[in-house]
TrEMBL record:
Name this polypeptide is given: C2H2-type domain-containing protein
Species name: Pyrenophora tritici-repentis
C2H2-type domain span: 149-171
Length: 209
């Protein structure tokens, strides 16, 4: 979307296709799954996809000829390939645990907002200096690769974003490919003969895969 906007294209319409209440905390995982499936179905139904030569694993959902659409889609992949964010944690945690963590996070968020609100009101210069310092630290962390994913060649400004990235299906798929491609059989050397398998990612020779 950013590329299209940079090339001069414009968003001419925005509309709500579906909505739902959040529901009980114990239903978070099923609701996220439902929303993901709906997103994928709507994208195919109204053809928000960039490629018109694929069916994205959901054939016959779009009821119109693609040649009749007066717009071009921008989605490069189906939402179904993204996976459910935080699914394993949601599945293993009880509703009570989730509620406690949510309450604790909300309390810290409110306290942080109140703290910075007071600083901003009493000393605007100190507030701006603190924000600039924090922004500079984030840029430095990105440049230094402090929170980087070497597999995907992405650098993040905080560990939480790296953690979120590591849970995406795209990263998991790339990691599996890297693991497979970097396992090579050593051909020469007495030392390597004892440990014939090598992991280039870890720079280590091993006795078995």
């Amino acid at each position: 979307m950013e590329v299209a906007l940079a090339e001069g294209f414009k968003i001419t319409h925005k509309g709500l296709l579906a909505s739902s209440s959040l529901g009980p905390l114990g239903d978070v995982l099923p609701l996220r799954s439902l929303h993901l499936v709906m997103e994928a179905a709507f994208a195919i139904l109204f053809w928000a996809m960039a490629d018109r030569n694929k069916d994205y694993g959901m054939p016959n959902i779009c009821r119109w000829s693609l040649d009749t659409f007066e717009y071009h889609g921008l989605c490069g992949n189906s939402a179904l390939t993204e996976g459910i964010r935080g699914g394993a944690k949601i599945h293993s945690a009880s509703a009570d645990d989730m509620a406690k963590r949510k309450t604790s996070r909300e309390k810290r968020r409110v306290q942080k907002i109140a703290k910075y609100g007071v600083i901003k009101t009493l000393d605007p210069r100190a507030y701006r200096a603190a924000r600039n310092l924090a922004a500079a630290k984030r840029r430095h962390d990105i440049d230094m690769g402090k929170h980087a994913c070497k597999i995907c060649d992405f650098s993040f400004d905080r560990p939480s974003r790296l953690k979120s990235h590591n849970s995406t299906q795209r990263h998991i798929d790339k990691l599996e490919i890297e693991k497979t491609s970097h396992w090579t059989r050593s051909r020469t050397g007495a030392a390597k003969a004892a440990k014939p398998y090598r992991c280039e990612l870890c720079n280590t020779n091993l006795t078995a895969q």
